[in-house]
Amino acid sequence: MEVPMALKLGKLFRGRSANKMMDHELVGLLEPGIEFEGKMTVATGMVRINTHVKGEVDCAGLVVLAEQGEVEGLIRSRFVSIAGKVKGTIHASEKVEINATGIVLGDIHTPSLFIMPGGYFDGQCKMPVSETANISEETIEAKHKV
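-> structure tokens emitted (146 positions)
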């Protein structure tokens, strides 16, 4: 029996943002046999990629890279879940999760990064400081002197 997509996705994400991610409607599905090269723009919802994509994926909602999925290039989204392979750069405004089968070879820019046991990440992660944090350099230096 096929497991519903919502249940599969619910297992991928943890924490407070899981409910926000589950609100995205699946609007794009790229399965094996489809090859994509160029720029993909998804204005709303979720896209699931389970094939090879070369170029840019720009999604306003959620990008799910399934186990057979591979992206060479740039991913921009609110949320990104990786069970496949990314060779390139990820910009996620809210969260990136690398699942147990996920591989990222490249840089990640996100305020929240979660790597499950077995997941692999080789690159740099830049985590922007929230505007509400208001942490001054003096405060950081004072904490390091103690």
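The longest helix spans residues 137-145.
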